[in-house]
Specification:
Elements lengths: L4 H7 L14 E4 L3 E6 L2 E6 L2 E4 L2 E5 L3 H15 L8 E6 L2 E5 L2 E2 L2 E8 L8 H6 L4 E2 L2 E2 L9 E7 L2 E2 L12 H7 L4 H24 L2 E12 L5 E4 L8 E5 H9 L10 H9 L13 H19 L10 H8 L3
Antiparallel strand pairs: 1-2, 2-3, 3-7, 4-5, 6-7, 8-14, 9-12, 9-13, 9-14, 10-11, 14-15, 14-16
The chain binds adenosine-5'-triphosphate and magnesium ion.
Length: 320
Amino acid sequence: MGIDVKLLEEQCSRTLERTDLQGLGQRIEGKVRDSYVDGPRRTIVVSDRVSCFDVVVGTIPFKGQVLNQVAAFWFDKTKDIARNHLIDVPDPNVSVVEECEILPIEFVYRGYLTGVSNTSIWTAYERGEREYCGHTLPDGMTKHQPLPEAMLTPTTKAEHGAHDELTSRAAIIESGVVSEELYDRAAALTGKMFAEGQRFAATRGLILVDTKYEIGLDADGELVVADEIHTPDSSRYWYRDVYEQAMSKAQDPPALDKEYVRSWLADQGYRGDGEQPELTLAVRCEAARRYIEAYERVTGLSFEPDLDPPAERVPRNLGL
Ligand SMILES: Nc1ncnc2c1ncn2[C@@H]1O[C@H](COP(=O)(O)OP(=O)(O)OP(=O)(O)O)[C@@H](O)[C@H]1O
Ligand SMILES: [Mg+2]
């Protein structure tokens, strides 16, 4: 069945682009989320903004709701594996979380030899590199093949506007940004999260191909899984059956993530620099349809779009 296109078109004029809420604390704008920090609490408003090539390129109807609800779903699923920051979801687009000190590293996990960006494992492999983030890769592998084992390929967490850079356990420890003890504890924890993500995704006929985690420290120095987890923005998923068919024909398996918007932009000649093409109504609706499909496929739940316009609904649900 899927969601009504008419409804998506209407929602395009009511997307949640930006918030500037008063009374929730200090406002910090990310590419996709607006955070409000008040002491030990952070209110994260997940907007409908979509970022590609590290640039915000427009809004997609219901994207914020999808991301926020997928993350909440996974936080609940994995709560026995690792403590996470989620306290409450007072609105489909909002999470209230425990404010933590985020480690300046992104814990990126990869299960497959794939990717399209300059820093992806496949791009490096195709160039002939066999050392990647401190791991040695065997010769003779083909594109999209499973890696011998899931790999933690950390990146630095760049300041606003910059790109994250590949690094390794050794380089991180040597630089001292995180101690060896802390890094290894966070690696063990995120490794378990990724294994659980892959296991559960398989029960839904999906492959959790790769993902990234942000890890925080709480006031007592305990590790807390923060940010968003296993969402279509932070992860790549493939359909297991489509992957197998694609591999047998040496084709690229389609992903359930923002690849659609990225490829459309790339087809217009845009890769993050120069003038930005405006997303058309049709592209925004198709992207929304895909995000919603991802929600339903990952969670097994039917997506209930909140039709109450988010710009007014969000402050109301936050009691403002
Ligand atoms: N529990 C938490 N405590 C503190 N910061 C958090 C927590 N959870 C998430 N964050 C931060 O909130 C921000 C979420 O916003 P968003 O994802 O839009 O940012 P971004 O554009 O990816 O920017 P950044 O490069 O800073 O991550 C991120 O900077 C993330 O590190
Ligand atoms: Mg982010």
